[in-house]
Amino acid sequence: MAHYDLATPITEAQARQLRVNDTVTLNGTLFGIRDATQIHMFDRGRKTRFDLRGHAVIHTAPNVRKVEKSAAHPAGYAPICIGTTTSDRMERYTRPLMEQYGVRLVIGKGGLREDSLKAFSDLGGAYLAIIGGTAALETTWIEAIEDVDLDDLNPESLWKFRIRGFGPLLVAMDSQGGSLYTEVRDAAKARRAEALRRLGVR
Amino acid sequence: MKVDLAQVEEAAKELYIRALKQLPPDVKQGFDALAGRETDAGAKRMLATMMRNITVAEQTDNLLCQDTGIPIYNVWIGRGVEVDGLRLKEAIRKGCERATREHPLRSSVVHPITRVNEHTSCGRGVPVINVDFSERDTLEIEMVPKGSGSENNSWLRMAVPAEGVDAVKTFVVDCVLEAGGKTCPPTIVGVGVGGTADLCIHLAKLAATRPLGTQCADAEGAKLERALSEAVNLLGVGPQGLGGDSTSFAVHVETAATHITMNPVAVNMQCHSARRARAIFRAGALEYGY
User: What is the pLDDT of residue B284?
Assistant: First the structure.
């Protein structure tokens, strides 16, 4: 169980060295994406002007305040509360994010499934678990909203955040086929019979 | 008591913001109880981070979670309360819109077909406003911002009488397994037993949003919820679905009579950010709580 302080963007080798149960703290740039962002990027043919190669994306749609553009708020948005949403709904976009845009790390909560795990293995990437519902804390790791694209989808725009000390995040799916979610789910299924027996289910 | 509708509008705004920022004391106590019992080191760390987030939200006057949810207002009109029902609903809706615009909050509400977001947290039939009556001399409004991570894990099964209560027990265990980490555990598992299909789901929602430490008023329901609370925490799903003893704060059950041919069971979950706020209007006074 190693800890890594990574500055984004990262290389394929950096992504591939991560193993489940390692922890990661990120610095630099982080991109925020959500359901509508990816529906438009991958199902409706829209493109982003952002270069996502080697970067981390987080499943989010933040609470923001519209402000005058300034050095502190270059995109004209001040962050209010930035958290994380359930990743599972966006399972089918992991591979295109990696193949078409070169994304290396996906941050979310609740985990992704087998196709994403395969994509991490084939292309070199990992899933970093953040603790869902802890957005007040997460917001303190965000320095600024640097830029925004596809903003007609607001709040599900493609957000570019500047981050400092973003973490620790838990490597929950890695490029070696490891998934803590699969491990826990299989173990929980094995305990189902005992739970039902205690409930007196015949 | 004659209700001041301007005050209702203000309270509807205030309630939404308060609910998003301050977790009720029973939920904080629920965290203490889980943390005290948890045996998995990783799960203990996660619970500690969740508890730290509650403190950070209070210290920075920020939202606990980014998900502003679907706004739900539960209204109880007491005896001797004089109010125009339609105007009351309008005032609540206006307060909800104002909270969204003036704080500002992320509007999480879209049209179900066009997916257009009006940026008001309102739309057709939203906010959800449930009106009921009470014995008291008060007007009470409870606000629940219902997060989607937990709401997306909602199920209804129209079991048959021959399957008995075993169908209910098995269904609840299987829903908790199916939900895994998607609901942001530790959760409050709300279970509806009986009624019609729609009433059964409504009961599950009432159960999921009931304060921790309260019991089902039906003794049979109370017995069932105690047994289920113990059983689901044997599964080891744990906080965030990453393993541990703390899968749920509690399973809550609400019951209603049902048809001789029916045996419906519904599950609706509440995430660990089990947010709610309450306003009580008395003659000449307005009090906020949970």
Answer: 84
- Say if residue B186 is preceded by a cis peptide, omega within 30 of 0: yes
CB count within 10 Å of CB A44 equals 9
User: pTM of the predicted model, to two decimals?
Assistant: 0.96
Contact B152 A135 (CB under 8 A): no
Please give the ipTM for the structure prediction.
0.95
Q: List C-alpha distances in Å: B121 to A144, B118, B125, B199, B205.
A: 25, 7, 11, 25, 20
pLDDT for position B177: 98
**Alpha-carbon distance B105 to A62, whole Å?**
9
Question: pLDDT, tens digit, for every residue of B41-60?
Answer: 999 999 999 999 999 999 99
Q: What is the pLDDT of residue A64?
A: 97
DSSP-derived 3-state class of residue A139: helix
Question: Which of B240, B251, B265, B275 is the best mutation test for A, with the most CBs of A within 10 A?
Answer: B240
Place of tokens 């049902």: B258
| Opening angle at CA B271, ends B265 and B273, nearest 5 | 145
Q: A3-7 and A23-33 as β-strands: parallel, antiparallel, unpaired?
A: parallel
Residue A202: the pLDDT is: 87
Q: Is the separation of the CB atoms in A196 and B254 below 8 Å?
A: no
Nearest beta carbon to residue B67 from set A83, A191, A195: A83
Check CB contact under 8 Å for A187 and B243: yes
User: Measuring CA to CA, which residue among B35, B26, B50 is closest to residue B188?
Assistant: B26
Q: Is B235 helix (H, G, I), strand (E, B) or coil?
A: coil
pLDDT digit string (tens) for B132-184? 999 999 999 999 999 999 999 999 999 999 999 999 999 999 999 999 999 99
- C-alpha–C-alpha distance, residues B216 and B275, integer Å: 20
- The CA-CA-CA angle for residues A131, B267, A197, to 5°, reads 95
User: What contacts A25, CB < 8 A, 6 or more positions away?
Assistant: A3, A4, A5, A6, A165, A166, A167, A168, A169
